[in-house]
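# nightly structure sweep
# worker-07 picked up a monomer target from the shared queue
# config: single-sequence mode, recycle default, output format = structure tokens
# input follows
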Amino acid sequence: MNMLLHGIPDADLRNNDDGTLEDPAHISGGELQRFDRVITNPPFSMNYSAEGIPFSERFRYGYTPEKGKKADLMFVQHMLAVTRSGGMVTTVMPHGVLFRGGDEGKIRTGFLEHDVIEAVIGLGPQLFYGTGIPACILVLRPVGSKPAEREDKVLFINADRDYREGRAQNYLEPEHVEKIVSAFRAFEDVPGFARVVSRQELADNDDNLNIRRYVDTTPEPEPQDVRAHLHGGIPIAEVQAKADLFAAHGMKPERLLVPKAEGYLQYADVVADRRDLRRLVESDPGVVAAEAAVKTAIERWWKYEEPRFDKLETVADLVALRKELIGTFRSALQATPLLDHFAVSGIVASWWGTSLPDLKALATLGYKGLVEAWVTTVLDALEEDKAKVDPLDHKAAKALLPEYLDRLAALEAEVAELNSTIKAATASDDEEEGDGVAEEALSPTELKKLKSKLTAVKKQLKSEKVAFADRLAAASAALDDTAARQIVLDGLESDLLAEAEDRVARHRRAVILAFQAWWDKYRTPLSALEAERDAAATALAGFLKELGYE
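# output follows
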């Protein structure tokens, strides 16, 4: 089912009870089948049985203990054994395989001596279903298959901080993938992210492949200026350290910070409270202009690329389209420094992934057919009690019935307001008489009128929603090809702009957090805290004296 959903109808799937190690299923002519690419996510840390294990030549580097749940490197050896010369293996592994000693250490040394490990990539926590522990990716090539310039070297990439945090699970987004893939392809040092390590250095470290030993991503500690803590003020050096962040977003710090003393700044008069910082940053002319530039660049790019969608004839055309769009999108946003290269790539890649079902339908059905498919989705959602799609929020409904949706929204708002008013009036009636009657309390007659009005409005809203399906179907049927094309392209562009706004908002939050951090650290100096303490102590002494305690 997984293969079919990903467009691979001819997958050769084989299953057995004993597992890959004890009973490999892909056999041809009595020998293991060989593959050009092996991509796996095997079960972590399981037991196995070495007795009678077939094709023992797979395990040329040794056997791990059968008990103790350490079959991980046995799987890796199997992967290498079924990979053709010149091929490649990528596999997800627990971090333990990188540093555990004993038999696993010997196998790891064997890998390094035969130069089969090309890269070790560390990932963040909670990215995989079923486990919250961080995992790593090993990239391996059979003996003699490494490119000449990569021989006797291993690339370490530490991406343990590159993910978007979620509630139950974290997410590796397209920009994070782009960053990792770019570093792997370049095979060069990237400060704080990637490092090429020689075989000799690995040997000097007893072939320990612990990623943090070679690439430490521990963030720098938050700077603390003692003088600023004592006397107030924001160190200019800390502001200058954020210069690139502010410049990218068009924010000039002097709009919020003014000179205080030599080497220090303070908040300008426009900042009266910490809550003002968000509003002032969001409304700053430079910030607004920088964000508008991103939107303008995307809209200009989209206008230029729109005709490419007219040429889609089959799903196979999407491969070339994706490659072209990603390339031209990067070029279009080069002049807008707000988002870095990886974020820009993430925008179009995320949008493509989300829009792919629609794009496949477009290539197969055309513009009008896609709109009809959207309408069918909305109509199906209307009939479901707990539909995953909000029918009134779908792009098809918004495009075909905007005024009708506005009327529904107005009726829903009126229902909510009447409910709130009635609830407040009913609550005031329930209060004890000793508390008095709430001001502007409704009389029984007024309350009855409100309830009657609420019933009428609810009835009207229900009637309008029932008619919604018929109106939507009629509007869809009345569309011509030109109108359908515009609806589809406008919907796709809107989704793309939403992805961009998400990245822009993240960058804006980083700007706001910088100013808020300085407020939290330095706004109230030690002298002010001591004065508050002394005043509180004096007040307490006065209270105690009045109570007769001296």
